[in-house]
Design brief:
Blueprint lengths: L5 E5 L1 H18 L5 E7 L3 H8 L6 E8 L14 E3 L9 E9 L3 H11 L5 E9 L12 E5 L5 E2 L15 E4 L1 H4 L2
Parallel strand pairs: 2-3, 2-5, 5-6, 6-7
Antiparallel strand pairs: 1-9, 3-4, 8-9
Helix pairs in contact: 1-2
The chain binds guanosine-5'-monophosphate.
């Protein structure tokens, strides 16, 4: 791993503890119900895989893929569905799982679409939140960590499709993308 380009923000043992706490809270809040967990690809896939194993109510999973930053580190504000859900969410308790909420524009778009499909409930769970950059009125119901305005990678998060497999969350040094 090329750690010259990055510094650890949250290591794997902190992440494991945090994700377990989040799973316990979700288990409590949805006790006696069934949950449809919707992962937003690609960034959420590792967080989601860990999170659902900490949730102790019956769950189904589905995925949505929307256009992301591509090679840039800031949002264009334009969001496009690349892959839609496989199943109907009507009358279901839906929990959206996202890696990081930044401007909130992606989730604003996704929640508007999903709300129109009449789920019984719709909540948002994210591992990381950068509220200082918010442009859309989005407040996640479950947040792992609030972080400053830095670009992070690892634990599913990429820069130009790299670093998703790094097991910790790192701050990427701006020299990597500021050229
Ligand atoms: P938003 O629409 O809230 O601005 O952007 C959300 C998406 O932008 C996230 O799902 C993620 O793909 C990407 N993103 C935002 N901030 C970061 C970051 O610090 N690191 C990485 N790797 N992706 C980010």
């Amino acid at each position: 791993m090329n750690l010259v380009k990055m510094e650890v923000l949250f290591d794997r043992s902190e992440l494991r503890k945090k994700v377990a706490e989040m799973g316990q809270q979700i288990t409590k809040d949805y006790s006696g119900r069934e949950l449809l967990v919707v992962g937003i690809l690609k960034g959420a896939f590792i967080f989601m895989a860990d999170l659902i194993r900490e949730i102790d109510v019956p769950i189904e999973v589905d995925f949505m893929d929307v256009s992301s930053y591509g090679l840039s580190t800031s949002s264009s504000g334009e969001v496009r569905i690349i892959k839609d859900l496989e199943y109907s969410i009507q009358d279901k308790d839906v929990l959206i799982v996202e890696d990081i909420v930044d401007t909130g524009l992606t989730l604003k778009y996704i929640t508007e679409i999903l709300r129109n499909r009449n789920p019984r409930s719709l909540k948002i769970c994210c591992l990381l939140d950068k509220p200082s950059r918010r442009k859309a009125d989005i407040s996640p119901d479950y947040v792992g960590y609030i972080i400053p305005d830095k670009f992070v990678v690892g634990y599913g998060l990429d820069y130009a499709e790299q670093y998703r497999n790094y097991p910790d969350v790192y701050i990427l040094k701006p020299s990597v993308y500021e050229k």
